[in-house]
Amino acid sequence: MEIKGKVIATTNYRSLPLIAPETFAGQQKANTNVSVNGVTNALDDHGTEHLWYRCALADGNFWIRSDLISFSIPSILDQLPFVTAAEIPNPKKIAFTVVEPSQDTLLKQVGVALAAGETLDAEEIKLIIAALKRYGTRLRKEWTAANLREAISILDKLFSYGVVMHGSDGGGWSLSEMQLVQRSIDLVASGTARHFQRLFNVADNMDTVGFRLMFAPLRIVRVPIDDVNPNPVIDPKTGKSPKWWARNSRGFELYLGNLAFTGMSFKFRPEDLIVHETSHCLNFRYRPQGKFLYDFYTLKGSYTIPAAETFDGKSVKTNFLDFDDGYSTRPRSSDHPAEVVTDAFTNDFVNGYQDSVKGEARRSQVRGLMKLAIENRLKEYGAVRARVRGESDKTLEGRLAILLDFLDETEFADLNLFSDKIMA
Fold first, then answer.
1. pLDDT reported for residue 90
2. Where are the domains of the chain?
């Protein structure tokens, strides 16, 4: 792999030609664009430890200190191969000494630093680096050892759901933000499990597999800006473009900006917003009878709770006068039906129903919508796994059993996390 970089200061460089056995010396001018294809850890002429990047020129490779080069996309630097002394031909001709990286240098490869006085053993550092590279996660810079361990634990837990946390350049995660995301995903997972248990009477360990069936794969990206609206439109009445604190892209990616964590009003909690954006996956992914889920949802008007869902076995009729009748939280950005029905799912997952007839009527509506989504999931994709395994079962229960067996036997890491062709 090669990554584009730019030399930021005119400097002498140390060279390792690709073919010629001898080295050469010279100057590399500032603002020269180069391709970088490796990284190592070495001592300079004064015995100071640095990261060094191996850059390619037409006449060979040269090495440059990390502080003398800049990158347009720093977030992918951790994908560069680490070059050991054994992998460098004629290492004695290089004017620096390759050494075993220190704890600080190792963590610097993934953009992390331990706070003063904090330590981790070498094996633990290797596991942390491997996890951050595996999940593609960027963290804020300074951490205590205990907090860093908890961050990795959160990443592992989310990955079991089929969720990874990424960060755009400058958009590393803090521990409190990661904890918030985990709480939010846990709410969606436990809420989804309730629907599977109600529909199929399956065991109560459906949180993980239920989420994976309906929402995975899912990538959550921390973006270091206030407005994540990719196509802002000026409102002619206000002369401003409404800010999006978060957004769901095509049902497979969530983008969370600064205001998702710091700009909350008193109308809803940060968890409500993240659950809302996650719930959009249902609208994007599932089309029962070729329709959108909101096509089956009563926004306003008369609704009857079926007798089978009431305590006394009698149907109950109510009338919705407002989109928010029966709900306690409203994280949506507009009154588009897709946004309103996503608020319905959100209230279900966070138990935001009002203690009223209208609250129970909304609960009844969402039960029906989740039934449609789950049936669509099993009908459209359950049979695919059955064919792969050489099995056939046309019942929803049978397809669910096949999918559960598949998920039990397979690590999610074996699946393509971000292909919209794979839904298991």
1. 59
2. 3-101, 105-167, 188-414
